[in-house]
Amino acid sequence: MQELLVISGKGGTGKTTVTAALAALAEDKVLADCDVDAADLHLLLRPEVESVNEFYGSKKAVINPKFCNLCGRCLEACRFDAVLQVVSEKADGKARSDRGSFYIDSLACEGCGVCALVCPTGAVTMEPNLAGYWYISETPYGSLVHAQLGLAEENSGKLVTKVRQEARRLGEENNARLIITDGPPGIGCPVISSLTGVTLALVVTEPTAAGRHDLERVVKLADHFHVPVSVCINKYDLAPEKSREIEAYCYETGLSVAGKIPYDIDVVRALVNGVPLTSCSRGAAAKAVQAMWDSLLVRLEKIGNQ
């Protein structure tokens, strides 16, 4: 079973739009959305959720007031300002001189455990933290594994790994030949978790100076993990000169340009209606995506035969 990962060096290049369009064209596949910090592939695929599962990230500190002796060592030791103090007031509204009680701001807590280490009474414990949810859904275009990370939560790389594991499991159960994954933007931890071990990465870029710069960063990351790369230039006709520069860069570095998608108002209409482009249009952009998909199939077959 092969894995095609669609990524970009920055948000807003059309990565999810391209992924959804490919999902409507592909057969015998499982879909995954690894952009767990801001998942939006489901907006175009209209999934029906079949399974909701909890995701626990790193542990976070909790103070049990029954055992707290108000020594304040946790407050002094915390470097993230996650330990907060509640100072009680007298009836006249003036603050008392005692140290008051302490509690943990879960949004600020980094889970380092220093407060639990310095607490002399064992009042601070590290507890499992519900950081988000992952889902298995059915769409008109196949099974979809996706997730939602909670606000200000970390360990998105760990959640990405869980999504990929479940997508592989579903693929094996369904005898799928391909997993198509909508990856996170950038080059950070979630991207690395999405990228390692995939068959091919399709990098969606745009004809701008920033697009060229971000493309180069993603290509270097993929090269580090020995992942083959194909390039898609989205809305290439809005800046033909910049598009030619990107093509020249790809030629010089041995990268294949799988496709060039023109600006097309049909893309906007598809997004407004919440459907994949290739399921509702036969315009220029949809035809370009079809041609790109044919090119990607050839590339995947060559990689599979190596």
UniProtKB/TrEMBL annotation:
Task: Note the InterPro entries from the entry.
Answer: 4Fe4S_Fe-S-bd, 4Fe4S_Fe_S_CS, CobQ/CobB/MinD/ParA_Nub-bd_dom, P-loop_NTPase
Source organism, top-level taxon: Bacteria
Q: Which Pfam families does this one have?
A: CbiA, Fer4
Give one GO term, molecular function aspect. Answer: metal ion binding
Q: Where is the 4Fe-4S ferredoxin-type domain?
A: 59-89, 100-129
Entry keywords, A to Z:
Iron, Iron-sulfur, Metal-binding
Would you tell me the protein name for this molecule?
NADH dehydrogenase subunit I
- The protein's organism comes out as Neomoorella humiferrea
